[in-house]
Amino acid sequence: MAVVMNIEELSAKVKVSVSTLRKKVMRKEIPHIKIGSSVRFLEADIDRWIEEQAVKAVV
Q1: How many domains does the structure of the chain reveal?
Q2: What is the pLDDT averaged over residues 12-23?
């Protein structure tokens, strides 16, 4: 079963402020789901998104 988080739960998980996350949602920079006026995040999508944000070392 998919784990679904609200914005406050995501904020605690990734240690980013709620206001920053709201900006990322408005700019469509972070994967999210809109259910009516509510915004939700699938944990699997967020984990993938975090991996994509990683800066690769240049060797």
Answers
A1: 1
A2: 97
